[in-house]
Queue: 4 jobs
Job 1
Amino acid sequence: MKDHNQHKYKGIVRGFFHQLLTIDFVRYCIARLRFFYFVRICRKLKTFDLSTQKAIASNTVFHNLKGLKDLAVVRSLALIKPVTAIDKVGIHSKVLTIGPRTEGELLSLIGYGFLKKNIRGLDLISYSSWIDLGDMHAMSYPDNSFDVVIMGWVISYSEDPVKAAQEVVRVAKNGAIIAVGVEYGGLVAQEQIKNLDYIPGAGRLTTQASQLTDFFGEAVDHVYFSHSIDEDRKDLKGSVIAVFSIKK
């Protein structure tokens, strides 16, 4: 997934315009225009019915509806960039991104070389034909569908992360790359969690990447990248990240 491969398979002109999507401001503007058209004009915003779903933390949809202003989705680059550095990931890889909220994350994937036709999003909120409405604990995709699965800051919202991980393994191909990220709010933020409108995953505190890979159990094969919270930053806000392959 290097730039020269992007140009080779996408063509110089199309590759150039797609690379513009790696610029945060450009990506934001395009995502903003599309958001305004589909949400404000076409009224296509819809949410998943959680009435019979107990695996998703309460107020998840309500909280994430307020996050729809994050149209550039810059933090997702912390997962996308390590994934694109892996040699086995290529322009024709089929990618599933879970919980993108808006199209910004999908636009980033296009900018970093993936083909739009091979990218699907899945979320409890959707206004776009690019993003399927659904639950990560029970996805409608067939077994062995994706080469890459990105779970950007979503597994924290699960009351049953092992079930979510098992479902990801099911829809992923043998050898697929999984990228998982969660937010760490710091000890100070945890003390103030009562002021939030949601408590993701019943307030689980994740500080180590190994806590993320543990959800996937024996399916974890090779860990390509991990980022944990250092002891001297335990009071600060940050991210815990794991990028790994799976074996089935």
Job 2
Amino acid sequence: MPPELSARAVGLRELMDDPGADRRMLDRTYQRFRLVNAIVSRPGLIYRRDVRPRARRRSISILDVGAGGGDLCRELARRLHRDGLDAEITALDADRRAVSWAESHDDGAGVRYRCAHTSDLVREGAVFDVVMSNHLLHHLAADELQELLADTRRLVGDGGLVVHHDIARSRAAYALFAAATWPFAGNLLAGSFIRDDGLTSIRRSYTARELTAVVPAGWAVRPGVPARLELRWERADA
């Protein structure tokens, strides 16, 4: 029987967030994120709609908050290089384990990896053209979400974009992920946290209505597929 999904299961915790999580399983999870995110997170859409149009005008700077193993950053770097475009990409994560793994698996992408919080970058006066996150919002407590939104707004310059992507909670999303990952639980995903934590993530995630109710004015919530939410804010040109 599927779990109760009528409300966010904020009391649950993902296994990989445990400071004592098995390091081999954690490393395998970072390694397998690239495959999962290629399907679920649709990096091609992010690139075509939000990154490439800006990079065609000039060299841009991109910040990925809560970047984990950095797979999204490296994929964006690969696409930019393929198209002859230039950008400085920073992968930010507060977990040193994630940053260390990502640094050792850059594979020539040229991404800058940093272990810090958005508040640290705000204090430094950092400014980016695009600030994004992927699968971060559902990890945060209510006050942490508001701090993230305030910080990421401060981190974009004129004409800049903030776009946070996450899972949309629903019974269909839970059932689909459970069914799609079941055949790979004993092979491709074995020894990782992806299946268990993915199901937990869905239970912790927002619906579009819930997210709309808690974000400040000026943010736009957009549903997407497969079972996606997009939270956008754009700064007008001065």
Job 3
Amino acid sequence: MHQLTTIPARPRKPARKAFWLKQAYLWHWISSAVSLVGLLLFAITGITLNHAGEVESSPKVSTAAATLPAPLLAQLSSSDQTARPIPSPVARWIEDEIGLAPSANAEWSDGEVYVALPRPGGDGWVAIDKTTGAITAEVTDRGWVSWLNDLHKGRNTGGAWKWFLDIFSGACVVFALTGFVLLQIHAKKRPSTWPLVVLGLAIPAILALFFIH
């Protein structure tokens, strides 16, 4: 008569730990790859923003002028002063003539239509005289450092860049949290881990509480 041998079940805890360790490594390197270039950009622009007053900038201002044809000028004769875009044919003509696309909401008054065109690293505007059709436009360029700083702040960057900032921020959160998990896993072999983490928290906290007024 054969005796049945019972094979003890393998402990599940080591397998579960290995699974989560593998997931932490996986998502840590994925999030680091997604956010790497963004982190570099924001680190550099963090320095340029912190020293904005020391970085010399010579704004370049360019102007343009034109006269709107009478048939298109007639499309601006409405007395409605509600903020709204100028008609598409007028906007296309202005873009072809002076190289600016006045697609934003315009400010309407009895004698003028004014379109503000803020942009990263500069500003711009287009004004149209509703009586004569005279168009005046101006563009200010404050240089590439100002442009990068505005990307950092999300100033006048549009919807696509806003989505990028959200996705980038999410990737940074995943990168930080998975990094924290990996620190916890390896902390036993690296005694300086938690003192360094506490130091990273203490330095900005002390500066914020005692040196910022």
Job 4
Amino acid sequence: MARVLFVMTGADHWTLNDGTRHPTGYWAEEFAAPYTALKDAGHTIVVATPGGVVPTVDQGSLNPDMAGGEEEAAKLAQVLESAGELREPIVLTDVNLSDYDAVYYPGGHGPMEDLSHDADSGALLNAALASGKPLAVVCHAPAALLATRDERGESPFAGYRVTGFTNDEENAVGLGQKAKWLLEDELGKLGVAFERGPDWQPYTVVDRTLYTGQNPASAAPLAQELLKALK
């Protein structure tokens, strides 16, 4: 069985362009769906965050209107409650990539606040890509790829096909005009080939050992791609 590292945001807010703090963290479905699929398959999961802080769930992601109804929201909350790994994260700087068979980054707006410029996360992503191990990143978590640039501003992810939360989706939730920057725009500047499916629909992209998903609905399909890679 494999050991999978979940690298998660340590942020509990996202600073908007007017300086206000939008409460956030990780998105429940983007943790719970892959966590459940991987655990059910017998794999071991370890959570790592900047500073080893316990990650904060975006409460909006547990709202029945966002989670797909009362029953689905309750299921998500139950997974989060049962996942002891969330309450015992390791410090990101202490991660030894050789201890893991795959790496997964769940999203939520939190990564826009911290992982987008976290040097330790950037170094880990570069090492994971070079290692040939499966690397899966979903929704807003591709913001972490922005921290992979070297001193010349170049990234080993340039030229890879990726997807992530789109400008249209950000505008639809009312945050596009409030954001300091938008993920789709910044990924384009990184040199990746950004792809997208219909808003809010599951959409995944696999390019070599890099697995990306567009939005929360893409987390479960992305987990299935990751499971295939771990066989």
